[in-house]
Amino acid sequence: MRTNKAVHLYIFIISLLFCIITGCKNYKATVLQNNIAIPETFTGNTDTTTVANLPLKQFFTDTCLLHLIDTAVTANPDIQSALQRVEIAGANLQSSRSWLMPSIDFNATAGIEKYGDYTMNGVGNYDTNLSPNINSKQRIPGPSPDYFVGFRSSWEIDLWGKFHHQKAASFTRFLASRSAYKLAVTSLTAQVATLYYQLLALDNERQVIEKNITLQKNALEIIRIQKLGGRATELAVQQFEAQLARTQSLRFGVAQQITETENQLNFLTGKFTGTVRRDSSIHTLKLPGVLQAGIPTQLLLNRPDIRQAELELAAMNADIKAVRKAFLPSLTISPYVGYNAFKTALLFDSGSLGYGLLGGITAPIFNRKRLKADYARTMAEGKQALYHYQKVILNGFMEVSNSIKGIENYNDYYSFKLQEVKSLKNAVDVAGDLFLVGRANYLEIITAQRSVLDAELELANTKKNIFLNAVNLYRATGGGWK
User: Fold this and answer.
1) What is the β-pairing status of strands 330-341 and 103-113?
2) pLDDT digits over 211-250, tens only?
3) Distance from C-alpha of 45 to C-alpha of 235, rounded to nearest angstrom
């Protein structure tokens, strides 16, 4: 009879384990992989030379700009926050490592309990106290105190690798946080450089405006003298005065832009106020000798945001593996050792030393819906990480392509604009000479002066765009954080 019961119990346990394992098999191992095909080149050039390999001090040669970048990396709050996120990820990694090891706690407890007369403990204690086989120290008081001083431990054996995958996810996220820090440094470097070149361009615009104000004031004085001599009309004087007022108003607009740009740079460098030191003209600055993007596959290694997205995807794959293991039974071992007694005077007696070991297997039955929900959520988050990874790759390719073409097109644009400015300056001189001898009217002078002003302002703006595209290329290819 006992044999049949043992057989039935054995069959029940085997069936239960079979159902649990079969239920877990319904959630097959899934690895989310990127299947986006990356083009072999950006512009047909297979040269692997990339501007991303240039150290910061070789790409930026302006010492004032390098000082601003160094200050920003040291003092910027976003960089400090990124560093703290690395610390947080490191702490999570240390925590995940502890899951593989048993926990050991020092335990000191005290309690008291009054058992009912009609309970097993109550009757048992009563009979024990009447037994002639015990001494006075062994008599159980009622109510019964319970004191314990010792160590308790709990260790869930990683039978299926659940904790191993959770640790792998934490480690991968730690690496991702370091890539996020590099991304923050790269973005900050690009921001500072962009604002600095904008500031130089605004300085140049201010110089152009001041020069044209002087030129237009001289022209206004000439036209006023000619009016006194009867060679010009009040209409001509009013036209020249209007043009001068327009140019003078531009000076204040540029001044406000300079103030705002300096304040933005002060913000990025962790300062409230201060004049940004710069001693270079944007027209005399030279671009780095290497302005090549390399090949698209280098982005996967160099760009911090792509590396971060790739590592986040790897972490989600580890999470998916871990959540699958949650459907399987878990084995927990709980040993303890210490002193246990119902009288404080006897607590540290040698006879009060006790130890024990408890092992148990638990398997999810009624909470499987929660596990299924966790699995579905983790799968959705994993797919979201995959789509984000693909988006970052597409965005990186687009940014590099735009920057390459931007440098090329704006360089050509600058060359023709330089010729235009030269011709317009000559036109201003010729118009002035012709006006003095009566062979040109005042409208031609006004038109020539306005055209050269607009062209010179656009020339400075074009030079700025060349540098901004170079900065974007440096950032887009993954440079700027070393």
Assistant:
1) unpaired
2) 999 988 988 888 888 888 887 888 888 988 998 999 999 9
3) 60
Tell me the two tokens of residue 9: 């119990």
Q: Is residue 380 part of a domain?
A: yes
Q: What is the mean pLDDT of residues 387-412?
A: 91
Q: Is residue 10 part of a domain?
A: no
Are 164 and 115 part of one and the same domain?
A: no
Q: Structure pTM?
A: 0.80
Which ranges of 105-233 does DSSP label H, i.e. alpha helix? 120-130, 162-228
| Alpha carbon 337 to chain centroid, angstroms | 48
Instruction: Give the three-state DSSP class for 134.
Output: coil
Rounded Cα gap, residues 148 and 111, in angstroms: 9
Q: Cβ distance 401 to 42 under 8 Å? A: yes
Alpha-carbon distance of 200 to 213, in angstroms, equals 20
Q: Are residues 244 and 296 in the same domain?
A: yes
pLDDT at 446: 82
Assess whether 271 and 405 both reside in one domain.
Answer: yes
Rounded CA-CA distance 73/96 in Å is 31
> pLDDT (tens digit, 9 = 90+) per residue, 91-122?
988 888 888 888 899 999 999 888 888 888 78
Task: Look at the block and give the residue holding tokens 């201010």.
Answer: 206
